[in-house]
């Protein structure tokens, strides 16, 4: 919700105005260690509260977590915009590679998520993800850096890359360089 609101430059309420209920996680992009909020009609929230208690959910003295969530919300726009910029930079780097092995549709990169299309040359997205995660002696000798990049094999021909507050512009540049290295090695 927050990534969509920042990308569209609208208040989250505008996106959710026709929803019966909304859940917002304070971890992940907002950076709180834990926590979420649920909003909806009074009866819905009361039933959710009852079921949560029935299943043993609940925390005592959760003020510290609430403070982290509040801080995350106060800085959400700047933090998420930085994540979006980093994702866009990574996607542009893939496009600049002009590799026959992978590509990105830049028009679809609106938030912190980049879907990378995998073409011929890779046995599977899982294989690409493994190459990006692993650090070889050859990579260390050639680049002088040990970089491990974690992407997710999303489908038969796609991997998914997601940015969050702990991935810096420098990390993004390293990930881009690692993908370039792996693609080049695959073509040799």
Q: How would you explain this protein's 3D organization?
A:
This protein is of the alpha+beta class and 188 residues long. Helix content is 50%, strand content 14%. The protein is built from eight helices and six strands. The chain has a four-stranded antiparallel beta sheet. The protein has a two-stranded antiparallel ribbon with strand order 1-2. A hairpin with a 2-residue loop joins strand 5 and strand 6 (158-162). The longest helix is centred in the middle third of the chain and has 22 residues, at 76-97.
Secondary-structure element string: HHEEHHHEEHHEEH
How many strands, what sense, and barrel or not for the largest sheet? 4 strands, antiparallel
Number of strands: 6
Strand content: 5-15%
Uncertain parts: none
Overall geometry: elongated
Estimated radius of gyration: 20 Å
Could you estimate the helical fraction of the residues in percent?
40-55%
Mean pLDDT: 92
Distance between the termini: 43 Å
Structural class by secondary-structure content: alpha+beta
Query: Strand order of the main beta sheet, please?
Result: 3-4-6-5
Determine the number of helices (DSSP H or I, runs of at least 4 residues): 8
Name the descriptors.
188 residues; two-stranded antiparallel ribbon; 4-stranded antiparallel β-sheet; 6 strands; alpha+beta; 14% strand; 8 helices
